[in-house]
């Protein structure tokens, strides 16, 4: 239920579930947390609610993606700021060797590339492909 609410941007439902017994770090079938899904959908208020419950921002899904990969992929700067300010590894590699910087650059998201570089992303990281 938490993953469904997060993926649909229902921040109030997410908060109610977290007030109950929902595990903020639970994984779905693809290894994604609710934070991955909130970032994939661009739902800042949901991500804020999850982070307030001390979600592990560095969990990787089955493809090695973190929530930062998701936020960079869609070019969501406020989500990126939120994640960076809560300790996410800006140079985390997915299973293809891509960092969030690679995802942003590939998508032509100039502002996100600049933001990640300002936050210490390694411009010299190489992919595995």
UniProtKB/TrEMBL annotation:
Keywords, alphabetical: ANK repeat, Repeat
SUPFAM superfamilies found in the cross-reference section: Ankyrin repeat (SSF48403)
Entry annotated with the keyword Repeat: yes
Repeat region (ANK), residues: 1-29, 30-62, 63-95, 96-128
GO molecular function, one term: ubiquitin-protein transferase activity
Protein name: Ankyrin repeat protein
SMART domains documented for this protein: ANK (SM00248)
Source organism (scientific name): Calycina marina
Keyword Repeat among record annotations: yes
Superkingdom of the source species: Eukaryota
PROSITE patterns xref list: ANK_REP_REGION (PS50297), ANK_REPEAT (PS50088)
GO aspect biological process, one term: protein K6-linked ubiquitination
């Amino acid at each position: 239920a938490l993953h469904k609410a997060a993926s649909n941007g229902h921040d109030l439902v997410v908060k109610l579930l977290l007030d109950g017994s929902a595990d903020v770090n639970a994984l779905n079938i693809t290894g994604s947390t609710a934070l991955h899904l909130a970032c994939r959908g661009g739902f800042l208020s949901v991500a804020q609610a999850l982070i307030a419950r001390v979600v592990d921002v560095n969990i990787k899904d089955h493809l090695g993606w973190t929530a930062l990969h998701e936020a960079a992929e869609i070019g969501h700067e406020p989500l990126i700021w939120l994640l960076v300010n809560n300790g996410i590894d800006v140079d985390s590699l997915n299973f293809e060797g891509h960092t969030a910087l690679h995802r942003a650059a590939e998508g032509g998201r100039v502002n996100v590339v600049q933001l990640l570089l300002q936050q210490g992303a390694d411009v010299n990281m190489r992919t595995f492909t």
